[in-house]
Design a protein that fits this description.
single chain, mainly alpha, 2 strands, 2% strand, binds zinc ion
């Protein structure tokens, strides 16, 4: 039997864990130590955020690339409220998972669902809030903070996509 085929069969029989919408591998899921500030754990959310950057033209993301690490830290913020202050991010994160990070559409597709008089549009609201903060930070010349907020925005978009 071909050795490569045998290894392939081993991977099929013993697959590695795959976690959608993860911020990092098991045991290192979030940045909560100062040592992680410059190299946050990388997983599905990071891939989606990076893919968003790849969709931009070079001219559109030139300002953001030097702040990519802050962008990835911001990507953790919706799931992590323990980002070390040593990371110099604009905040330590939100961890608003329990408030809901998704949207729900009306059955007829007319817009967001309303459940118990509550509009189920939290992700859309959070995307807009983070985008607005990014715009304000960018206009003030604080590109690092702008990158952080765009990363958080990318997280909410990834959650509903
Ligand atoms: Zn999330």
């Amino acid at each position: 039997m071909n050795v490569i085929f045998f290894i392939f069969l081993l991977f099929l029989c013993f697959p590695m864990q795959a976690t959608a919408w993860s911020n990092g591998p098991a045991g290192n899921a979030q940045t909560n130590l100062p040592e992680g500030c410059t190299q946050p754990p990388y997983a599905t959310h990071d891939y989606v955020a990076d893919y968003g950057l790849m969709l931009l033209s070079a001219g559109e993301c030139d300002w953001l690339m030097p702040h990519r690490v802050m962008y990835l830290l911001g990507k953790e913020a919706p799931d992590n409220d323990d980002i070390p202050i040593e990371c110099n991010s604009p905040n330590t994160g939100y961890d608003d998972r329990r408030k809901g990070q998704s949207v729900e559409w009306a059955a007829d597709g007319s817009g967001f669902a309303v459940v118990g008089e509550k509009l189920i549009d939290r992700a859309a609201v959070r995307v807009h809030e983070e985008y607005s903060k990014a715009v304000t930070a960018y206009q003030r010349g604080n590109l690092s903070d702008a990158a952080f907020y765009l990363g958080a925005m990318a997280h909410y978009i990834a959650d509903v996509s």
